[in-house]
Design brief:
By secondary structure, the protein is α/β, with parallel strands linked by helices. It is built from 13 helices and eight strands. Helix 3 crosses helix 13, helix 5 packs parallel to helix 6 (about 105-125) and helix 6 crosses helix 7. It is globular and about 50 Å long. The chain binds dihydroflavine-adenine dinucleotide.
Amino acid sequence: MLRSFLIYLSKAAWAQNLVTGWSFAWRTASRFVAGTKLEDAMRVVHELNAKGINVTLDHLGEHTNTPEEAQQATDDIFATLDALGADANARGNVSIKLTQIGLGLDENLCAQNLERILARAKQNKTFVRVDIEDTPYTDKTINLYYKMREKGHTNVGMAVQAYLYRAEADTRRMVEDKTTIRLVKGAYQEPADKAFPKKADVDANYDLLTKILIDGSLANHTRLSRDGRVPAIPAIASHDEKRIAFAKQYADKAGLPKDGLEFQMLYGIRRDLQELLVQEGYPVRVYVPFGTHWYPYFMRRLAERPANIWFFITNFFKG
Ligand code: FDA
């Protein structure tokens, strides 16, 4: 109930105008967001890299309303790619959302922007992960991914949401095509005919998909690249200790070397677990969002863990 309400608020323009006007809201959000500028994000890249953690950078933005906004978002992504290109030691790649670069406006425009982003990523010797959004965009996102593959782009990966009934079929198809996949539970509000309503079913599906990804990594001998930029097939993106333990156990039993997968977590969440996995010798990548469009991202983080609302309220009383 509270989760649904917070996800509704994440999309409501009136709530965005209200909340982003409160200074204590940014104070709370900045636990999850590296800062508003690219320099802030690059500083965090260096801090995390120094701890043995790789990074994926997200210049925040989604649902742009005009072709000009989609162009601006594409230019912002170019700047992030160029910053990584200028710093060969930075162990990082980039994550993007297709509605950020025009998917909700015009699929052709989005395809053009995506293709330019992949070309720019190649020049900068890095990789682009396409985030997965809510179900009105799932088919379009997968179609555009395949369109890019047909055009010869290989420096691009996808994400799959374990809460969707279709996730198993999508994962099997994409692993067959050697797609690197970030496996997440899913952060949006979906109807019961599209997504498992019960958390236990989502968790069980997550473990099943983990097996498929690990088997795919074994069959295709995929490994994290030495520069930390291009991941192997499975990216287990969760803070759920049971899901992580399952992945470790299954990979170990199957004989997958540690760099045949990676664990991913969000900036500001379970830093202890991130560091523990690094100590155990696993590749870890932290998703680092930055920029001024932090509101929907932040609201989804509140929805995932309503206890975060207390943190929000505490900041209000701090004045
Ligand atoms: P779960 O929600 O069961 O949480 C397990 C534990 O993790 C909690 O008990 C708590 O300790 C901690 N935790 C989880 N969320 C927290 C929060 N917000 N604040 C504090 N603690 C928290 N989704 C999507 O739909 N499309 C996408 O492209 C992505 N991309 C993505 C990248 C990466 C690197 C990650 C880690 C996650 C995503 N997600 C996503 C979000 C994902 O779908 C999911 O909503 C969150 O990861 C929370 O689910 P968990 O797997 O962590 O489990």
